[in-house]
Amino acid sequence: MSTPQEQESFRLVTVSAGTSDPSSTRLLADRTAQRVTDLAAARGHQVTVRAVDLREISADISTALVSQLVTPKLQQASSVLGEADAIIAAAPVYKASPSGLFTSFFDVLDNDLLIGKPVVLAATAGTARHALVADDQMRPMFAYLRTMTAPTSLFAAPEDWSDPALNKRIDRAAAELVLLMESGFARKIRDESWPSYQHEYGSAGGTEVAIDLDTDLMRLATGGSAG
């Protein structure tokens, strides 16, 4: 990676849904963040890393899910992500899918919060059978949130921690994230193209909002009963 001429300061946020202490999920996120910091420094940049540990706000996430009440702790986590120049999102895998804590957190965030932000996806599990979860399940969710996911995702089963191949993948994902941050894509979206995104309920760029929700079909679609 060549050294750019202009030095910049970036804000990197790790989101980890590991529930144990210590957590292999948090370890993978932290190791990747350190590599991003090192690579960025070699290119003349400074990276400030902040961590959002979801186990510490699990009750706040549950409250938002059932009541739509955003607590101060959850609002702080949301604000940290909103100010981020890049994100490392790491989830443990249970029963062939990211943990409910991880998906619930992103479910309660504003849909516009992460538009254009560079993201590295990472997952950990007790067996290599879950190796495709990051690409098969996490990537579509972040596509819905309209992020810029790095091409390389990360996965670590117990046997991977001593395998040099994991470090190589971390290096590659970190390099991709640094380049995405340097591009300033998320900032340019906000400065130049933000009004072109649909920011409200409806279709046709937010202009088609005359949808009758009080019909038998719509009640059935949303889990209610007809009539």
Helix-strand layout with pairing:
Blueprint: E1 9-16, H1 24-42, E2 46-53, H2 58-67, H3 72-82, E3 86-94, E4 97-98, H4 100-108, E5 118-124, H5 133-144, E6 148-149, E7 154-156, H6 164-183, H7 185-193, H8 216-221
Parallel strand pairs: 1-2, 1-3, 3-5, 5-6, 5-7
Antiparallel strand pairs: 3-4
Helix pairs in contact: 1-6, 2-4
Describe the protein.
This protein is an alpha/beta fold. The protein is built from eight helices and seven strands. Strands 1, 2, 3, 4, 5, 6 and 7 form a seven-stranded mixed β-sheet that branches. Strand 3 and strand 4 form a beta hairpin. Helix 1 crosses helix 6. The longest helix has 20 residues. The chain is globular, with a radius of gyration of 19 Å. About 5% of the residues have low confidence.
Brief summary of the model shown:
The chain is an alpha/beta fold. The protein is built from eight helices and seven strands.
Helix content: 40-55%
Q: Taking Cα atoms only, what radius of gyration do you get, to the nearest Å?
A: 19 Å
What fraction of the residues are assigned to beta strands by DSSP? 15-25%
What is the count of β-strands? 7
Can you summarize the main beta sheet? 7 strands, mixed
Coarse shape: globular
The end-to-end distance, rounded to whole angstroms, is: 63 Å
Report the uncertain regions: 201-211
N to C succession of SSEs: EHEHHEEHEHEEHHH
Q: Report the mean per-residue pLDDT as an integer.
A: 88
Which structural class do you get from the secondary structure elements? alpha/beta
